[in-house]
């Protein structure tokens, strides 16, 4: 369902071209739980951005659920992201002036009428255990709670794919575990494809497959027995 064919990606900075991904081919089946590992700066976020249609590529093809991301225009990409993809970031990326509920309602604003939006957002927040924090501003929430709001925002559109860029990177390991448990629960219960960037080998090994990024190349290896 996610397919990269001979993808190359480079950035130009200060007149110099640096190739981040070199002729990368990769297939991720629907419903898989996949981790992405690799040293800092190896291109993990870039790879996730490419899959999420957030970053153009220099050559190759990117297919998500049968759609040619590499040829699609911004409008079509926005629609694809809204319908199919939920994104979670290391820095939560919540709007600080909006409550938990309003943050989670945001992705739905262009889709439905308001009573429906509020109900869906409440449901998503309940799912991540935050039914009692609906009207809190992010600044009144702990880091773990803020990340759960961000996860609810990713879930609220009922995506087929969740892309998580080091979602535990700013959390202590105990709190991080609650986020991972939620991701695993969503994967197990809803059959959502999860792609998780992590520096934590223990978390990486809980996935069904792992993509290791190094020197512009990727290696996909299955974990024979999921540890959990
Ligand atoms: P990782 O997620 O593995 O830490 P990234 O994908 O964020 O790596 O970055 C890979 C490399 O590409 C880094 O050297 C980074 O500085 C560079 N890079 C990322 N985004 C850009 C950009 N928009 N412009 C220029 N260089 C970038
Ligand atoms: P993360 O915490 O996800 O690794 P970063 O702080 O590395 O995020 O990057 C934040 C944003 O800046 C990303 O969208 C990334 O693509 C971009 N970026 C990273 N490195 C560079 C760079 N060297 N030049 C320009 N943009 C960059």
From TrEMBL:
Keyword Nucleotide-binding attached: yes
Recorded coiled-coil stretches: none
An annotated GO cellular component: membrane protein complex
Single GO term (MF): transmembrane transporter activity
InterPro entries: AAA+_ATPase (IPR003593), ABC_transporter-like_ATP-bd (IPR003439), ABC_transporter-like_CS (IPR017871), ABC_transpr_LolD-like (IPR015854), MacB-like_ATP-bd (IPR017911), P-loop_NTPase (IPR027417)
The protein's name: ABC transporter ATP-binding protein
Keyword field contains Nucleotide-binding: yes
Domain of life: Bacteria
Lineage, uppermost ranks: Bacteria, Bacillati, Bacillota, Bacilli, Bacillales
Signal sequence, renumbered to the chain: none
The entry's keywords: ATP-binding, Nucleotide-binding, Transport
Pfam families (alphabetical): ABC_tran
Record domain ABC transporter: where: 2-227
